[in-house]
Automatic annotation (TrEMBL):
Belongs to the methyltransferase superfamily. L-isoaspartyl/D-aspartyl protein methyltransferase family. The keyword Cell inner membrane does not apply. Residues 262-282, 302-332 are annotated as: Disordered. This is Protein-L-isoaspartate O-methyltransferase domain-containing protein 2 isoform X2. It is found in: Cytoplasm. Its main location: cytoplasm. Keywords: Acetylation, Cytoplasm. One of its GO terms (molecular function) is protein-L-isoaspartate (D-aspartate) O-methyltransferase activity. It comes from the Eukaryota. Gene3D superfamilies: Vaccinia Virus protein VP39. The lineage of its organism: Eukaryota, Metazoa, Chordata, Craniata, Vertebrata. The keyword Transcription does not apply.
Amino acid sequence: MGGAVSAGEDNDELVDNLKEAQYIRTAPVEQAFRAIDRADYYLEEFKENAYKDLAWKHGNIHLSAPCIYSEVMEALDLQPGLSFLNLGSGTGYLSSMVGLILGPFGVNHGVELHSDVIEYAKQKLDFFIRTSDSFDKFDFCEPSFVTGNCLEISPDCSQYDRVYCGAGVQKEHEEYMKSLLKVGGILVMPLEEKLTKITRTGPSAWETKKILAVSFAPLVQPCHSESGKSRLVQLPPLAVRSLQDLARIAIRGAIKKVIRQETASGSGHGLKGTPRAKRRRVRRRRMETIVFLDKEVFASRISSPSDDNSCEDLEEEPRREEDRAPLEAKPAPPVNFLREKVLSLPLPDPLKYYLLYYREK
């Protein structure tokens, strides 16, 4: 599934293409997509396909196409402090991007059927926290994953502000999915071959909007135990942050504010990275939906949201002088100013490293 936009040479160019095709429409979603490199969630031998607008599957590991994730992120209308439940959380790629928007006081939970995929997601999450400079540019709501069938969530679990299901929902499970949602909340899921947004406007009132034609593998039906009873999935408890953790969040926030003030006054540098070179070409294509079922392949074609009945390439943008510069003239990697500020503070080293979440440089 995918093929709505041209492939990018890197993560930023993929995001540029998604913006050009109007799949990414808001600044928070764009920032989240740029902050997390999609290639980091691929196995090494498949990374050459990471910036194509295509779904990827290897064993139980699966990533939806970037155009699908961008439509989902936009439809969820994420805000800081909300609670989010990801049904079929997979690699954790979507949950991590959502966590960048929810901030430190949100709730970010995922349910995944396969235990090996849970381990893969935890490894990728740990890699992002330890090594990515993007982690220091955001206040992150770290996702928590549990293993189980999302159709067997305990009925006494809390409801959520935002819910996404990453597998095709059968009509008979629609009410079950709605029951996971708070009043005022938003549910996004593939329902009857359409990516569907459902808003709970009251205890028994709903608004439904069809977003995009899609083809997802259906939800796996629960397997009952020998006693005939289902295995209920217990979601993570709503954790209360410690005073120590709250202090770390507040200190990091204060340092970021100082950096922004220095930037505004021209006396320092901000948290933003080095400006990217402008790409030269964008190519629009109609979306191609490809469905794999056992050994057979079914393909259909639908229009992307930005289609204007034209498949012509956009005009090539004028090259800037830096585009013609030799490779050795490329700007140096951006500096992590938050890290530099923390390390320069007159504090004991253990406290500095705690403020940095013990992250690698």
